[in-house]
Amino acid sequence: MSSKTVNELNWMIGGAQGSGVDLSASAFARSCVLAGLWVYGTREYYSNIKGLHSYFEIRTSGRQIRSKVEGVDLLATFDAETLVRHADAVTPGGGIIYDPALSQTPIEKVDTLYKDEIKQIQGRLAQQGLGSDANAILEEAKRRGVKLFAVPFSSLIQEIAKRLETSELTKVNRTVNVLAVSVSLALLGLDRRFMDESVHQAFSASRKQKLVDMNLAAVERAYGYAKEKFGEGGLEVGLVPIQSGPRMFVVGNQAVALGKMAGGCRLQTYYPITPASDESEFLEAHENFALKEGATKDGKGSVVVVQTEDEIAAITMAVGGALAGARAATSTSGPGFSLMTEGMGWAGMNEVPVVITLYSRGGPSTGMPTRTEQGDLKFALNASHGESPRIVVCSGDMEECFYDAFRAMNYAERYQLPVIHLVDKGLANSNMTILPPDPSMIDIERGKLILDGGAKDGEYRRFAHSEDGISPRAVLGLSGYRFWNTGDEHDELGHINENPENRIRMMKKRMTKLETADREIPESEKVSFYPAKGHPDVTLVSWGSSKGAILEGMALLEARGIKAEFLQIRLASPFPAQAVRERISRGGLVIDIEQNYTAQMAAVIAEKTQIGIRNKIVKFNGRPISRDEIYESVRQVVSKPEANERVVLTHGA
Hints:
The chain is an alpha/beta fold. Helix 7 crosses helix 9. The two termini are 32 Å apart.
């Protein structure tokens, strides 16, 4: 193992959607986590329900990691498309696990490939004098120094069925994923006990011992086969367990859900939409949960999760729950948020605290519903006809997803307005190991909430004017606190009133909340700043899930003599104009990095600070930014800023 790169590799598995690719990736990642390693995984899949291609990359390391990288060290395939589509991503010294039964498959017969993709691959092979089938793909990889590992999955499945004394090959066939993962881990040198434990964790909840036994048999046979046929394997990478402290292995939307639970959310509404549904489904699976000692008499908490008939019902039901006193939230993606805008405007008019988690994906219209994009920033800032205040929070990693979801519940009730928690799909569907978040770092704040009945003067002015724009808030049904809600302009009691002077007072009252929030929210929750070691050569400005790739790219840049600092914008409304202005007005090279076509945050910065950022790096092909893309593109801009005012990133399969 001493001659290998240890605990620093990128593994990929692919297959038809619905064939268990996600389960395979989870098993691989869980095995690494159990071995004490850090993990970062990215999931890519088509928007159809089943059949088309999906793949998962799992990067693992002995140190904390936060982004995807280019290049694959070991590719596990059990179908022709994964081999044809991804073999060229495998690095020299890496390996490909493949089924020899598929090696004769003509590329044009892989009917899930687009015609332009087939032509592109065939053209690449033809330039090398190679044929047009899977064998040619393997030969191309072999010429680059990639190791090939033929695994006859069908034969192994038959052996497992014989050992288990079952003729139900259809059921045993499902272990092909476990076989591919187990062969991978065996080639990488990771002890089998970690995969065994991973299987137990994955299948024990089903309470079907036969299922557990079948998959454990697959693990045993795969490890045995790898040892018999490949020995040490010859890979230049390997895995060994390390000692580690407490870790949490979490998916992005799970981190959001956990933050809402810790933040006191008691009503979550949703209508199914990719990729937001996973958050609500996680909450549904954990509607009842334990609380810290002394929080309630029985030590239990709960959240009501309701699947509504559409997104209009989802937002209005959440608003109704908030009016009744519940900490309420909803979750959606771009098309669903379009339907929610009128309900959100009603909440703004009536000063109702509600949280909307908006998972940004490729648009417009249906766009690319399972691909990532940061195209909804301006939409979130301006959605709803007319003008109404809202706070917009942008998370950049799993930890921020948790804490921002918690804080969003506080912001909503403290300032009595809608809060939009903006998370892009690339972060929502990624998984990684993090240090367990600490909910005790944030207190639940309910703002000016009236908890006892009986208005002192017999008349309750729900929308009473105040210097900070925030009025004492009673919930529906509280004795002595009668008030009216309407979508029309109204007076302090809630009665419709279109008097010009009243309109001015009420508009100013509502919009003043953002000024109050801007004063009160600490700068550490508005922006994060990562300084360079010494005088910086460049200032990078970004937001959202680009954070991890930028932080890791900065380390590579420093090794090449380029010192970069990073300004991460976390609060888009109210916009932290002063903090941003101070960081980007010093006269050095500034580069804006975003995952959208028009560099929306750069436009917002120009609007709020009157400072234009000349150089921009953008990506909008639906695939997340990698560490290596940041490194290469920033080097390109730094070398010739005038010639590279706009760099478009294109990596991704």
